[in-house]
Amino acid sequence: MFHQLPDTGKTPLFIMLDGTWPEARKMFRKSPYLDSLPILSLSIEALSRYQLREASLAGQQCTAEIAVALLEQAGDNVAAQTLNHHFEHFRKSYLAGKPHHPADRSENTR
């Protein structure tokens, strides 16, 4: 398991398993072709901004947030910022359509 990307001189290719933690574990176990690939462990200190559903554990991030962190670690800051912008737009638009859910919790605490 890596905690940072190895410097191979090649553009990294990421395979991300998108699902709940139990679903992702099941996909990983049922995909033996992934066994030979390196696993990258990320330490993300920022709280998730997802808010579309509750995380089962504190510190969990949604797939888009993980992808942004991976792109940043790979040094592709333009792609990371672009994805983050699209994620924010999607998140706010989705939450705005939910009458029982404020569009952004931080905006309501001012």
Automatic annotation (TrEMBL):
Keyword hit for S-adenosyl-L-methionine: yes
Record InterPro entries: DTW, DTWD2/TAPT
Keyword Transferase: yes
EC code: 2.5.1.25
Domain DTW: 1-99
Biological source species: Lonsdalea quercina
Gene Ontology MF terms in the entry: tRNA-uridine aminocarboxypropyltransferase activity
Keyword terms, alphabetized: S-adenosyl-L-methionine, Transferase, tRNA processing
Name of the molecule in the record: tRNA-uridine aminocarboxypropyltransferase
Any one of the GO BP annotations: tRNA processing
